[in-house]
Amino acid sequence: MKNVIMDVDTGVDDALGIIMAIKSRKINVLGITTVAGNVGAKQAAINTKKVLYFLNEMNIPVLSGSETSCRGEYITGSNMHGIDGLFGALRDVEIETNEIHEGRAVEYLIETIMENKDKGTTLILTAPLTNLALALKRAPYIKGFIEEAIIMGGAVECPGNITPYAEFNIYKDPEAADLVMNSGIRITMVTLDVTNKVILNRNHINKIINTNLKELVSSITEPWINRYKNKYGIEGCLVHDPLTVAYAIDRTIIKTRRTNIDIVKGDAIQRGKLERKDDGPSCINVSIEVDDVKFEKVFLECLNI
Ligand SMILES: [Ca+2]
């Protein structure tokens, strides 16, 4: 079983991804680090710990990380996931502040990757890439022991979701993304080109057997499904992060192609845009096709274990 560290900004779809990863029993989640994105890093850690509490997996460590991007900007405030990131679900779960190891994410990434250097560690990153970039800056030698970084981020052939050019996670810290892309780590990018094609709807959620879990998934996704209906006329919601986790569990869900990537940085209007460059060797694979039916199958298999 692969050793995995998840790096998240929990968020509705991060929460679904965490639930899938842990319940699948097909990957070994060593720990979860959080970063500012959908909400602040500390709030994301509290949300993550609450999800773990719900799953009765309180032994998995949660560590909050950077509250700002590599340029030092506060990057929260999308409000897409409600004020607390989970639309108030699990609001009655009390989490002690000392349970979230505040500010220790980067240190944890370095320590844990080195502790597991014989087996290697896979990273699943469904948030801005600030924590990994800071870890690589502080300890560049860790890159030799990262088996793969599976990243939800970017848009290649399709428009972005925060600007016409950029996807949220990359846009919020393109300097971090650029550092990660140029690190030499084996990377798979699960981009909007495929995540825009997978919709989770109420029929899928109704197939969750465990009543408590069905209730939790409904309560976090229902406001989202309503927003998608009002804004885009879609019956259901996009599941960027769960699709990324599903790919870590079953590699046949997404087809990729190897390519080089340039990221637009700084204050350019195209900030956060991915530009594909087919020139020479690369260790980056970018998603090109997705099997949405297989995703649904894996999603339900994980949740119904
Ligand atoms: Ca996320």
CATH architecture grouping: Alpha-Beta Complex
Small molecules bound in the structure, each named once:
calcium ion
Q: How many extended strands?
A: 12
Give the overall silhouette: globular
Q: Find the structural class using helix and strand composition.
A: alpha/beta
Protein name: Purine nucleosidase
GO molecular function: purine nucleosidase activity
InterPro entries: Inosine/uridine_hydrolase_dom, IUNH, Ribo_hydro-like
GO cellular component, one term: cytosol
Give structural attributes.
305 residues; alpha/beta; Inosine-uridine Nucleoside N-ribohydrolase, Chain A; eight-stranded mixed β-sheet; two-stranded antiparallel sheet; 37% helix; binds calcium ion
Tell me what the structure shows:
By secondary structure, the protein is α/β, with parallel strands linked by helices. The chain has one domain: Alpha-Beta Complex (Inosine-uridine Nucleoside N-ribohydrolase, Chain A). It contains 11 helices and 12 strands. The protein has an 8-stranded mixed sheet with strand order 3-2-1-4-5-6-12-9, with helices on both faces. A two-stranded antiparallel ribbon has the order 7-8. α2 links the parallel β2 (27-34) and β3. It is globular and about 50 Å long. The model has no long low-confidence stretch (mean pLDDT 95). Calcium ion is lined by residues 8-9, 11, 13-14, 37-38, 126-127, 241. The site of calcium ion has 10 residues, from α1.
